[in-house]
Amino acid sequence: MHELSIAQNILSIVDNTASQNNASIVNSIELEIGTFSGVEIDALEFALETLMQNSKLRDTQLTIDIIQGKGLCNECGNDFEMASMYAGCGNCSSNSVSILQGQELRVKAINVD
Ligand SMILES: [Zn+2]
């Protein structure tokens, strides 16, 4: 499963950060995931929670910030929320759209003690 390997990746970043900071407790993890990241957010959350339950992160608070996809129309300058990566401009129907946000898949913050 794609999401399981992403979850393992995220938790190894968390592990590395904790050991670099000589931290024994990870209080919280905050992730940013865009609606265009290609990740099934529910599945990722489930995978993370399952992995965390069976590790020293079982008391760590997990927050996932979902970044709504947004685009900027190259024709009329309209910026708008995109339902899909291939959505056209709602204002002028142009398909020449630059994606402003929504492709994020990153660890935003790790809080350790
Ligand atoms: Zn437009």
The hetero molecules present are: zinc ion
Output the CATH class name of the domain at 2-68 and 102-112. Alpha Beta
Treating each run of at least 4 consecutive H or I residues as one helix, how many helices? 2
Shape designation: elongated
Helical amount: 25-40%
Strand order of the largest sheet: 2-1-6
- pLDDT average, as an integer? 95
Which CATH architecture of the domain at 2-68 and 102-112? 2-Layer Sandwich
Low-confidence segments:
none
Distance from N terminus to C terminus (CA atoms, Å) equals 32 Å
From N to C, what is the helix and strand string? Answer: HEHEEEEE
Give the C-alpha Rg.
17 Å
Which secondary-structure class do the elements indicate? Answer: alpha+beta
- Assign the CATH topology of the domain at 2-68 and 102-112: hypothetical protein PF0899 fold
Beta-strand percentage range: 25-35%
Please count the beta strands (DSSP E, at least 2 residues each).
6
Describe this structure in words.
The protein is of the alpha+beta class and 113 residues long. It has a domain at 2-68 and 102-112: 2-Layer Sandwich (hypothetical protein PF0899 fold). It is 28% helix and 32% strand. It contains 2 helices and 6 strands; from the N terminus they run αβαβββββ. The strands form 2 sheets. A 3-stranded mixed β-sheet has the order 2-1-6, with helices on one face. The protein has a 3-stranded antiparallel β-sheet with strand order 4-3-5, with no helix packed on it. Helix 1 (2-20) packs across helix 2 (41-53). The mean pLDDT is 95. Zinc ion binds next to loops.
